[in-house]
Write a structure and sequence with these properties.
The protein is mainly alpha-helical. It has seven helices and no strands. The protein has helices at 6-24, 27-36, 48-53, 56-75, 79-91, 97-107, 120-147. Helix 5 (79-91) crosses helix 7 (120-147).
Length: 159
């Protein structure tokens, strides 16, 4: 088995930060990306380019570490910042705004964004804050619907 040094891991983390994470531009997007690199059956992380440049083991450890760093930074950020980042992500969706907000409320996709190894209280705080962010954004959807001219509003049941 190949021995991985802390230097290898730090080099892999720096490569990941510079080439992949920085261009994403905001932590919520980065967190979603990082969670997509984790196998939900095993909890192992994989990134072909990073594994090719370093080693599979160094890449996996670096990915897990970056995932945790981004998660803790976002979980402890001010709620206003989190709401703005969740909104930024949702507005980047090709789907209708209302449909996206409703899907996030119903499916709670943010649950898979939590690293496998994380403090339970911080994970609970993150889930709670994202639920609050979704509620805030849901309120914005309702305000937008109310501002639409009556001719554009969908008919209510019984009308």
């Amino acid at each position: 088995m190949l021995r991985v040094t802390q230097l290898d891991i730090e080099a892999a983390k720096e490569d990941l930060r510079l080439r992949t994470l920085e261009p994403i531009g905001y932590d919520f997007g980065r967190l979603i990306y990082m969670s997509s690199l984790r196998d939900f059956n095993s909890g192992e992380y994989y990134h072909h380019g990073l594994a090719h440049s370093f080693s599979e083991q160094a890449a996996s450890v670096a990915l897990a570490a970056c995932h945790q760093e981004i998660f803790y930074r976002l979980a402890t950020s001010p709620l206003e910042s989190l709401v703005a980042q969740v909104e930024h992500f949702m507005r980047s969706s090709p789907h209708a705004w209302e449909k996206t907000v409703n899907a996030w409320e119903t499916l709670e996709a943010y649950r898979v964004m939590i690293p496998s190894v994380s403090n339970r209280l911080v994970a609970d705080l993150f889930r709670s804050n994202v639920r609050v962010a979704v509620e805030v954004l849901k309120g914005r959807v309702e305000i937008q619907v109310e501002k639409q001219p009556a001719a554009l509003r969908p008919p209510l049941l019984g009308q």
